[in-house]
Amino acid sequence: MADESWRVPSLVQELAATVQEPPSRYLIPEQDRRDGQLAGAEMPEPVPTIDLQRLLASDDDYADEEATKLRSALQSWGFFLVTEHGIESSLMDSLVAASREFFRKPLQEKQAYSNLIEGKHWQLEGYGNEQVYTQDQILDWCDRLHLRVEPEDERNMDRWPGHPESFRGLLHEYSQSCKRVKDGILRATARLLELDDDDGIIGQFGDRGSINARFNYYPACPRPDLVLGVSPHNDACVLTLLLADEHVGGLQFHRDGTWYCVPPVHGRPLLVNVGGSLEVR
């Protein structure tokens, strides 16, 4: 039987504690290091910012002003910051703290929620690496925890960490709040598109649309100039609501052949990215 151990790479957090140089499987090809993908350029303008409370206000003047900003953000970048989203900062801080506590747990405890079936068959949900398709695939310098949160009756609670004990309740509350934010943005977008029904976009996905939560952990790397935390990709979903670190940057967006670095943002806004499923509809 062929050796396919390459399909199950080491968890990066464990690897980072033992190596002086990233293994070759993580190294970005030389030509990609030269094109500015790793360093990135400064944003030529501030990240577009939308006040969700004003966007959804009954006062037409407020709503129209924010809708104009939303239209510009969608047309120019495809992503924007959302402030006044109604999610308590304390809830967001607590969820971030709980996720960090999970990643600090001993490996044996975290592997109870592994995304590998019988230690070798990859599945989307759970703790671990991204799927490895080929032996020459460049791997991400990142561990992650991926969980389905909607529909609620499809949650695989065996993959939801039980420690810290607060994690499950915090994620449930946060996901419900994000669902309200998502619906508000999609209704406002439907009005911009002059659809007959404000629920014209939401209705296309039915009442059992899938919502997933993903927690990315990027261990310190001895050569961060040679690796990527997450490989370049397009989000396939409708919207991504990103709760980013307030102090550490790294997020980049690609536009017109240039990679731009998104600076860290304070005050717990959400960064919203338009996914491919919305773009093509």
UniProtKB/TrEMBL annotation:
Residues 209-281 form the Fe2OG dioxygenase domain. Keywords: Iron, Metal-binding, Oxidoreductase. InterPro entries: DIOX_N, IPNS-like_FE2OG_OXY, IPNS-like_sf, Oxoglu/Fe-dep_dioxygenase_dom, Plant_2OG-oxidoreductases. One of its GO terms (molecular function) is metal ion binding. Gene3D superfamilies: B-lactam Antibiotic, Isopenicillin N Synthase, Chain. Belongs to the iron/ascorbate-dependent oxidoreductase family. This is Fe2OG dioxygenase domain-containing protein.
